Amino acid sequence: MTSLGELLKKAISKFISSTSVDVNTVNELVRDLQRSLLIGDVSVELVQKISENVRRRALEEKLPPGISRKDQVIKIVYEELVKLLGEEPAKLKIPKDRRYVIMVVGIQGFGKTTSIAKLAYYLKKNDYDVGVICADTYRPGACDQLEQLLRDTKIPVYRHDGEKDPVKIVKEGIERLTSDGVKVILIDTAGRHKSQETLMEEIRVLQREIKPDEVMLVIDAGIGQQAGVHAKAFHEAAPVGSIFLTKMDTSAKGGGALSAIAFTNARIKFIGTGERIDDIELFNPSRYVSRLLGLGDIEGLLEKFRLAELEMDKKRAEAFMRGEFTLEQFVKQLKDLRKAGPLSKLISKLPLPGVQNIPDEALRNADKQIDKWYAIVCSMTPEERTDPHIINSSRIKRIARGAGVLEKDVKNLIKQYRLAKKFMKTAKRLPKKFLEKV
Ligand code: GDP
Ligand code: MG
Fold first, then answer.
1. Which of 165, 145, 245, 179 has the alpha carbon at shortest distance from 210?
2. 25 to each of 36, 69, 366, how far by Cα in Å?
3. What angle do CA 126, 132, 138 make, to 5 degrees?
4. What is the 225 CA–ligand 1 centroid distance (Å)?
5. Rounded average pLDDT over 199-208
6. Which residue among 267, 313, 327, 341 sits deepest, i.e. has the most Cβ atoms within 10 Å of its Cβ?
7. Protein residue with least CA distance to atom 6, ligand 1
8. For residue range 364-380, what is the model confidence (pLDDT) as tens digits?
9. pLDDT reported for residue 438
């Protein structure tokens, strides 16, 4: 079966190879994304949210100079997926000063034991007093494997050969390790049983009896959408709090993770990137998504955007200061300004003669005014927005009706716009300090 990563990649490369970018190609991309995410068992609500955001942004966002529409859409898809995965790189969030028990669960062969050794080693290097309990009574040699992996680290491993009850082993282990001064305790559990039901029953009983501080689910990056099914089963037995995604170094690129997090609401904390004990990294959503989508140089693309946007901002600001702005840009600029706080506060701080004399009432009205103006601009045609000269009285009537305002409001906006333009043209005479502030 095709993995989520491959489906997403296919959707993007289909989009990249289309000859032009318009509403139709964007809609088609969004449909392909939806289909891929749904096949990948990502929840309907999440799929809806991502695809709405992608569509809206792809159609609305301005294209910075020197950037192709395709690059822009790829960046949007990338950013929306990163948002889904939690944006910020994962944090350890393990206390140092009290006992903290992590029960690690997952299907046999996914890399549970290896990941526990990696995590223990990682924690030790970060100054944690860490110990491990082997509670996999099902797999022969499981405890030997754990000891072998940790041989050179001086990390204690608790085992009780011959004891078949994992709850008993874990209880003994916690007691022993705690009395030896260990604070963070990792528990290796069975990943296979006589049947799936008895395995889940064992995990359920462990959860009930041990009440670990954190349940960490180990998922093999290569298993694709099946990850969702496993995650669901474990999550029902013991609420999963974090995910360890293994084998990110192999050819599979871990599309299953999206499904796993959708089922558990847990975040990916670590990834495994090889078989050695130090092949472990804290999860970084942006790096993961660019691997998933096969985007080679996403950093380069983002940097290109950043520079282009800076350039655009600079050009726009310069043009604005010269009084070169359309009605639409005028209202947008006011809206942007307001993001920095209420306009009334902003204006009163400007080093302009007479500002102190503007009545508070008028300033407060200015804030309300902007929303009204925005509605007015929205109900204008593109021609009217760029060239308000053509707005005659019949147009004013239509615009006012569309925006739900009075005709005099429309006239007032046009008048303010003209005044602002005139003001900016003469503003060159104002002190430089003021220009920098605006
Ligand atoms: P468990 O049955 O879930 O405990 O899995 P193991 O820890 O025994 O690992 C199963 C296999 O996967 C072993 O051969 C590991 O070396 C390998 N493995 C685990 N994690 C990784 C990883 O991040 N990268 C690679 N390449 N192999 C891994
Ligand atoms: Mg194991």
1. 165
2. 16, 11, 41
3. 145
4. 19
5. 97
6. 327
7. 111
8. 777 777 888 888 988 89
9. 45
